Amino acid sequence: MEDSGSTDWPGRWKHIRRLLERSGPFAHPDFEGSPEILEFMLNNCKVLVIGAGGLGCEILKGLALSGFRNIDVIDMDTVDLSNLNRQFLFRMKDISRDKATVAAEFVNNRVPGCNVIPHFKKIQDYDPSFYRQFHIIICGLDSVIARRWMNGMVLSLLNYEDGVLDPSSIIPMIDGGTEGFKGNARVILPGMTACIDCTLDLFPPQVNFPMCTIAHTPRLPEHCIEYVKVFLWPQEKPFGENVGIDGDDPRHIQWIFEKAQDRADQFNIKGVTYRLTQGVVKRIIPAVASTNAVISAQCVTEAFKLASSCCNPLNNYMVFNDTDGLYTYTYEAEKKEDCPACSQVPQALSFKKDAVLQDLVDHLKNSASLQMREPGITATVNGKNKTLYMQSVEAIRKRTKENLPKRLSELGLTDGQELVVADVTTPNAVIFKLKYEV
Amino acid sequence: MSTQRGSPVVDKEKKYDRQLRLWGDHGQAALEGSAVCLINAGALGTEILKNLCLPGVGAFTIVDGKKVTGEDVGNNFFLEKSSLGMSRGQAAMELLTEMNSDVKGDFIEESADQILETNPQFFKTFSIVIATELQERTLLDLDKLLWENNIPLLVCRSYGMLVYMRLVIQEHTVIESHPDNAFEDLRLDRPFPGLIKFANSLDLDHMSKQEHMHTPYLILLYKFLEKWKSEHQSQIPKNYKEKTAFKNLLRSGVLKNEEGVPLLEENFDEAVAATNSALVPTSIPSSVQEIFNDSCCTNLTSQSSNFWILAHAVKQFTENEGAGALPLRGSIPDMTADSERYIRLQNVYLDQAQQDYASVLGYVQQTLTSLGKPSDSIPEQDVKMFCRNASFLKLVRCRSLSDEYCSDKAKVSDIGMHLENPDSEMAVYVLLRAIDRFHSQYNRFPGDYDNEREADVHKLTSCVSNVIHEWGLHSTVKEELVQEMCRYGAAELHSVAAFLGGCAAQEVIKVITKQFVPVNNTFIYNAVTGASATFQL
Ligand SMILES: Nc1ncnc2c1ncn2[C@@H]1O[C@H](COP(=O)(O)OP(=O)(O)OP(=O)(O)O)[C@@H](O)[C@H]1O
Ligand SMILES: [Mg+2]
Ligand SMILES: [Zn+2]
Questions:
Q1: CA of A184 relative to ligand 3 center, distance in Å
Q2: Are B474 and A269 in contact (CB under 8 A)?
Q3: Which long-range contacts (CB under 8 A, 24 or more apart) does A355-358 make?
Q4: Where are the beta strands (DSSP E) in A145-220?
Q5: Which pLDDT does position A2 carry in this prediction?
Q6: Is residue A198 annotated as part of the catalytic site, yes or no?
Q7: CA of residue A188 to ligand 1 center, whole Å
Q8: In chain A, what residues touch B18 (CB-CB under 8 Å)?
Q9: Total beta-carbon pairs less than 8 A apart between chain A and chain B
């Protein structure tokens, strides 16, 4: 790696030096301004950026200009034309190239000495040994599942000795999110402050239209589009036997659009447009450069504060909205005593004696504090490891779905039994203790 | 059609798809037709422009007399090491336009001061002027010029961990404010003939179970309200107790099975859940009432903008056909219902909205004629949009900087009141004013030199006192804040500038598209705590 001398020029770090080399009343009590802090940031501090999308591009730029040079970025996707209205490290010529690589090249070229390492991967492709190497992790993701998975990962890196948390095992995670003109940024000190799962209720529930509405009583243009997606596509297989809907293929959207229009006409429903069709099919979230800039900037400021201690970090959650004037609100999200992800308290699940496995699955999915997606449940029954139900692998789902209507006791589950539940929302299985209500 | 430069039109839909869902094709057209001027291409200035170039602003011009320095390249993504010594405006312009070929960029290698002196006309060609890194005197000159010519000004400043933004606009009217939580306009407290007729055509006592379960809850509310009114001197439920009783009345309407156990009827649950909001009496929001009472609305002239002519027409409607209510919005929320009756109900509302619109259109045409304008000079589409948004109209009037800076017009009592709270962000405003004073006295910023920091704390403290005393106040600001300001020494942190870069670009977009509501008028953000505040100064 190049040392700071060869790429720097006079005055380069003048602005940040003011904060890093001068003590101040709002700094962390242990902070003492000195040139070593910048040296640490330039040469030793490793930051991981997750996502090179609307937030990720901004975060990379911000880090590179704030004295961070050892940056890794993970993104699983490629550049699309619709990214260019905000993901400013990408150009027309980059369409279809992988985002992580293009973003890294751009930042490394623009900011001399910066060493962004790209990973064209899913976060789920890496294990704890990869994540452990970083001082700070910043997430610029667009899904709750991925956030929860990362949250579970940083929590799994914590070391507890005799129930006492080893502070050196904490990797702060900064998380940003945007939707239209709204956004939020938060600082998570895993094991110490509220984690993503502590505040699951903050995420708006996914809107799903009831099947019977879609099938029988459509009222909105969205209902007509869903109908084509859910019923007509698999029936008519317009693009061949095993061709699923590709939201980026204009022919697919056009077909759905036309069919949805037919259905809408049939019911006198107005308002099916091509744009709406694409929005519903891809579950598009509106996005604009400005909101992403604001939230990413906040995330970078927090990384700068955490790496240097030059100011206290955000405590710990900020919401932003600039639809009507400019509004921010900062508060301390509370760590939940019995959080399934970060509390270290084994989770108890109480069921009536006559409950069936389906009840258990429903609870794991619908409980506000769990919100799992496709829970896979295993348990040790009569000394043998037994998969009770698993949805994510089709063959196992077929084999185990007959268990769903069976009573828990029928499946050999006893009071106090440990249940091991795996789900896409967490990298590690969660252990529950089954309790029968008396 | 394809454009001369840049991508063909068909690609634009896709390229701008994510934002078109926010401000629509007409918002995009306004943005693409606009020209903005940025004064000074520092980190803050280029971040603002970045967030305007990406969504496709029509054109920008940078006014900057400076040459690129090492510090500039250090915190600015749109300057490179190779641009050291070049014109800062030019270097930034090149890297900014490289991002989006739809945008036309230009620069002038002159300071704002020079232009104000030699060619003030220059500023009059822009949709908005964004000012950064300006000294107080220049700012006030610019303010005067733009105010007189009715051109919006956005003043932005990023100072250490602190951020300041001030919008100066004489009058800004908004039809599409896109409120986050818009209440529905259902008129159950004063049902209109179409609704009454449709509701009366349905008989809950003589329909199949399926039909009963799929009767839209609006109809349920209407019918049970009629029942309630007949038993309560024609009054609708008003207080908590009455509303609870009304909900019980609703629940009593749920069908029962042979054993007398109520069935699950989702439409009734929805009716109960919607009771409170549906019983809020129809009224004209106070912000709209203020618009109606504004002298611009009551005294139309041939110079009046379309907004005021439309407001005047809607006001006339409320005083006549509307009988105290705005034109009906004409939309209903989704609810459990069969398609057929839902669509019919939707049309009942749409028809009434159409009728109201027709009345408003009549007033508009009358007014236009009386003002000596062609009666079709406001497109019908615009009248419709105005009616649909009648309850969300917004009017923003910001004061000029010269009023704010003039000691007998300053909002002294407000400032004093805020300063009573030691944690108020108003202290940041006072300090920034004090720093300007410091700069005009010493021609540098407090904390510029390490060895003078301590002395600067005292000097800045006395500037703070001067500023406060000139207002005739006796408030103080925390000493820590003065120290912290001297620590910053006018440092511009990239991420703090980028935060404001996002906020400021969004305000510019609001002003240009006339959608959403701009800030009135001063925004302060403190990146140390993440707190922000808005003041009317
Ligand atoms: N599990 C994951 N592993 C790696 N990267 C992820 C994962 N989940 C999401 N991402 C990345 O996070 C980024 C989110 O950014 P953003 O939503 O702005 O981009 P986008 O999804 O391409 O845009 P749009 O949502 O408008 O289509 C995407 O680039 C996406 O690839
Ligand atoms: Mg996305
Ligand atoms: Zn938690």
A1: 18
A2: no
A3: A355/A407, A355/A408, A356/A404, A356/A405, A356/A406, A356/A407, A356/A408, A357/A388, A357/A389, A357/A403, A357/A404, A357/A405, A357/A406, A357/A407, A357/A408, A357/A411, A358/A404, A358/A405
A4: 160-161, 164-165, 173-179, 182-188
A5: 41
A6: no
A7: 21
A8: 82, 85-86, 284-288
A9: 244
The token duo for B520 is: 């009135």
The one-letter amino acid code at A264 reads: A
Minimal CA–CA distance to B199: which of B213, B181, B220, B184?
B220
A149 token code pair = 């998975």
- Does the beta carbon of A49 lie inside 6 Å of ligand 1? no
Catalytic residue among A57, A212, A299, A311: A212
Question: Rounded to an integer, what is the distance from CA B461 to the centroid of its chain?
Answer: 36
**Average pLDDT score, chain B:** 96
Q: What one-character-per-residue DSSP string does A256-314 give?
A: HHHHHHHHHHHTT-----HHHHHHHHHTPPP--HHHHHHHHHHHHHHHHHHHH-SSPPP
pLDDT tens digits for range B137-158: 999 999 999 999 999 999 999 9
Most confident of the ranges A6-15, A359-368, A393-402, B436-445 = B436-445
B376 vs B361: CA distance, rounded Å: 10
Q: H or E segment at B507?
A: helix B494-513
**Token pair belonging to A366:** 């619908």
State how far the Cα of A410 lies from the Cα of B438, in Å rounded to an integer. Answer: 81
Q: Does the pLDDT of residue B8 top 70, yes or no? A: no
**Interface residue B331 vs chain A (CB under 8 A):** no
pLDDT digits (tens, 9 = 90+) for A371-413: 999 999 999 998 899 999 998 888 999 999 999 999 999 999 9
Contact partners, residue A260, CB within 8 Å, separation at least 6:
A221, A224, A225, A227, A228, A272, A277
Look at residue A107 and give its three-state secondary structure.
helix
Q: Is A437 exposed, middle or buried (CB count within 10 Å of its CB: 0-12, 13-18, 19+)?
A: exposed
Task: Give the other-Cβ count within 10 Å of B57's Cβ.
Answer: 26
Q: Closest Cα to residue B268, out of B286, B256, B280? A: B256
Tokens found for residue A126: 């890496």
Question: Residue A81 carries which DSSP code?
Answer: G
Q: If you ran DSSP here, which 8-state letter would residue A232 be given?
A: I
Tokens encoding B111: 């300071």
Give me the residues paired with residue A161 across strands. Answer: A164
Structure tokens at A355: 């409950």
- Res B184 pLDDT > 60: yes
Interchain contact, B534 vs A326, CB within 8 Å? yes
Across the interface, whether the CB atoms of B502 and A292 are under 8 A apart is answered: yes
Asked whether the beta carbons of residue A312 and residue B528 sit closer than 8 angstroms, the reply is yes
Let me know: does B378 contact B384? Beta carbons within 8 Å: no
Closest CA to B537 of B378, B441, B438, B418: B418
Q: For the segment A106-146, what is each residue's pLDDT rounded down to a tens digit?
A: 999 999 999 999 999 999 999 999 999 999 999 999 999 99
CA distance between the termini of chain B = 47
User: Coil, strand or helix: which one is A424?
Assistant: coil
Contacts of B255 (CB under 8 A, 6+ apart): B209, B212, B213, B262, B263, B265
Give per-residue pLDDT as tens, A156-194.
999 999 889 999 999 999 999 999 999 999 999 999 999
CB contact under 8 A, B99 and A88: yes
- The pLDDT value given to residue B186: 97
pTM to 2 decimal places: 0.96
Residues of B in contact with A290 (CB under 8 A): 51, 502-503, 505-506, 509
Residue owning tokens 């620069």: B107
CA-CA-CA-CA torsion sign (A240, A245, A246, A252): positive
CA A64 – CA A36 distance, rounded (Å): 18
Task: Determine the residue type at B219.
Answer: I
Report whether residue A150 contacts ligand 1, using a CB cutoff of 6 Å.
Answer: no
